[in-house]
Design goal:
With 490 residues, this protein is an alpha+beta fold. It has helices at residues 43-46, 49-62, 95-101, 105-124, 161-165, 177-180, 187-203, 213-222, 236-242, 254-267, 289-302, 320-332, 380-400, 416-426, 431-453, 457-470, 475-489, and strands at 10-18, 22-29, 34-41, 73-79, 82-88, 137-139, 145-147. The strands form two sheets. The protein has a five-stranded antiparallel beta sheet with strand order 1-2-3-5-4. A two-stranded antiparallel ribbon has the order 6-7. A hairpin with a 5-residue loop joins strand 6 (137-139) and strand 7. 45% of the residues are buried.
């Protein structure tokens, strides 16, 4: 906003950040004489009545979240045409800032443990963040990591603001496979994003990278979990489970992950040096069971009657992926995003524009000839292996059709597509394998069409690409990919 912001009850001091959805100011809440981060909705969004209604409704619900590892929202409201949210001001900078400076392994584990505690509490209260990334992790002056941006459209009542107006939550580098495919998400989607962030904290680079956001989103769906370098390979089990392609394979809760971190640090020989890391802080004290139950109960009571919470479920409608990839692409013009400010938005001033990085090459999706074979041989032994592969693949198809694609295309090497392709390497004309691949292609075609009809063009493209793994060159799927790409470019 170029004009001075005037909101009764607040004294604006200076701008501290700007993003596509809002501008953020350091302000003083005059009634309590405390500094706050005052987030003011962008005028273009404020003109959308449906968006603003849900902003106010859901923001008030989210403001009841209270946890040491979550930024507290103090106030949300409207003054004339201005819609605003006043949140706790966290002065210690972002995780992106610290990542650019370099983090030790001990510091990285402290951060993800803190964020996991905050996510656990939020999930128990019925909220999924859907945009866990370094730019949304802030630091208190004592070093505690705090997750920001729980202020807009995260309730699990099934009709979020993002669903209604075509915005979305998610950043391609940290997006879970189910987000990329525009499927329903739950708290385990946040844990996947936490795993992607942990990988970056340990290696200095995101788990997947490519020259455009569409390819990055597809890589989360199709590519194997990335491997840590040798010096931190002992932490690979944490990354593997956090970033499991199937949500059922991930840690069930943030607390379960935090406990796994503590267990690994306590038992791994490589962890001995962590206790000697200079400046390493102790883990933040956890809430007692009574306090945790009291907070969860209070937040549950605050949710509207239609927000009765089935465990974990949050619909991610077709529009969810569009902003994640299209807006990120349009806003940044294909370049790497600049480090974000301590408010989770792009900085107002900085050292200069970000350097355009050379596009990384995406890893190719394996062709049928590249899919690894077990020790198949000619004759009876080979036939037995083929029969076993077919039986497993057919079971994956049977359950996957009713379980939102589970085991149809992931995890790599143990999914219906890969198993059928392995059969065809041994018996190129195997009718059962060919029929199974047609069935999978038909499934992804129907899901891709449905996503396209919901205007979820990125999700439609990802789903069609999955179908093409089963039937390369299928004209129906190729047309969906092209139509989706064209729609995103308009």
């Amino acid at each position: 906003m170029s004009e001075p912001v005037i909101i009764p009850g607040y004294r604006v001091i200076r701008p501290i950040g700007v993003g596509g959805m809002a501008s953020v100011y350091l302000a003083v809440q005059e009634s309590l004489d405390r500094e706050v981060a005052l987030k003011v909705m962008a005028p273009a969004l404020a003109a959308n009545q449906e968006f603003t209604d849900r902003f106010l409704k859901e923001g008030r619900i989210t403001a009841r979240l209270s946890h040491p590892n979550l930024v507290t929202v103090f106030d949300i409201g409207q003054y004339g045409a201005i819609y605003y949210l006043a949140a706790e001001f966290i002065p210690g900078g972002t995780l992106r800032d610290k990542l650019n400076q370099g983090l030790s392994v001990a510091e990285a584990l402290d951060v993800v443990r803190d964020v996991a505690h905050g996510l656990h509490y939020a999930h128990e209260c019925g909220f999924v963040h859907r945009d866990v990334k370094p730019g949304n992790v802030l630091f208190r002056l004592n070093g505690t990591a705090v997750l920001a941006d729980f202020g807009i459209a995260k309730s699990i009542d099934g009709s979020t603001m993002a669903t209604q107006v075509g915005s979305s939550i998610g950043t391609p580098h940290y997006m879970s496979p189910e987000q990329a495919k525009a499927e329903k998400v739950d708290g385990r989607s946040d844990l996947y994003s936490l795993g992607a962030m942990l990988f970056e904290l340990l290696t200095g680079r995101p788990p997947y990278d490519a020259g455009d956001p569409f390819t990055i989103a597809l890589m989360h769906v199709t590519h194997p979990t990335p491997q840590l370098p040798d010096d931190v390979r002992w932490l690979q089990p944490l990354v593997d489970r956090l970033m499991a392609k199937d949500a059922a394979g991930r840690y069930p809760t943030g607390e379960a992950f935090a406990a796994a971190v503590d267990q690994l640090v306590a038992t791994a020989p490589e962890a001995k040096a962590l206790s000697e890391t200079p400046g390493r802080r102790r883990a933040a004290p956890r809430l007692s069971g009574t306090d945790q139950q009291r907070r969860v109960a209070a937040n549950a009571a605050a949710r509207p009657a239609d927000a009765s919470r089935p465990a974990w479920v949050l619909p991610a409608a077709g529009a969810v992926v569009v902003l994640a990839v299209a807006v990120a692409w349009i806003s940044f013009g294909g370049r790497s995003a600049q480090p974000l400010s301590s408010t989770g938005t792009e900085p107002v001033a900085g050292p200069g524009p970000a350097t355009v990085a050379a596009p990384a090459q995406a890893e190719p999706v394996p062709t049928p000839s590249e899919v690894p074979l077990t020790d198949l041989t000619d004759g009876e032994a080979g036939q037995q292996d083929v029969a076993a592969l077919l039986a497993t693949a057919q079971e994956y198809v049977r359950t996957g059709i009713v379980e939102r694609g589970r085991r149809l295309a992931a995890p790599p090497g143990d999914n219906a597509i890969d198993l059928y392709l392995r059969v065809l390497q041994v018996e190129p004309g195997n009718a059962a394998a060919q029929a199974g691949l047609r069935q999978i292609a038909d499934y992804y075609e129907s899901k891709s069409k449905a996503a396209f009809d919901r205007n979820s063009y990125a999700g439609s493209m990802v789903l069609a690409e999955e179908g093409l793994r089963a039937r390369p060159g299928d004209p129906r799927l190729m047309k969906l990919v092209e139509d989706s790409r064209r729609a995103l470019e308009q």
